[in-house]
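Quick one:
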Amino acid sequence: MQTETIVNLFIPFTVMMIMFAMGLTLRIRDFTLMMRAPKAVLVGCMSQLILLPTLGFIFAYWLAATPEQAIGLVLVASCPGGPSSNLMTKLAGGDVALSVSLTAISGVVTMLSIPLISALSTHTFAAHLPGLSMPILETALRLLLMMGLPLLLGMRLLNARAKLASRLEPIMVRMSTSLMVILIIGAVVKSRHELAQYGWARLCRLCSLI
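Output:
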């Protein structure tokens, strides 16, 4: 099996494992209690959808060595918090329901905002490059299958078999954490040459600004 095929299978599997583990800790009332204090949701959404892309443009302008790097930096800053942020919230003892809600809301909004930000960043940093496009319907269905369905299955198991879910939850969290660590290490190893090259280019860019 080719490396690209393994990666394309491993990443969705890891995301689904994380979301299922999060579902084992959540009940419907967790979301209803959270909505009684919408300030946290508003602050979280504004930070992810407005503040981070703005910071992405600022850092891209000052630090990126090439137009491609600038556009990439803006797009990374514009991406919403995903399942990994939910897992980190769980491990840190935070509000998992709030984290999952922010992931869901920002995931829906960014299906529209990322193409717009992509076009704006391309026009800003590389007007000669073609704009990027994203299949909105396909992306929405993929998010539903990889994130929404496993989350609902975990919540359903917690509601139907609470004792089983409580025994399974720490095992799933450990497995999800291990898979995420493997995924990060694999990505760094695979892109080590590009990362080293970009690090050197960014250092030169910083030195030129001093």
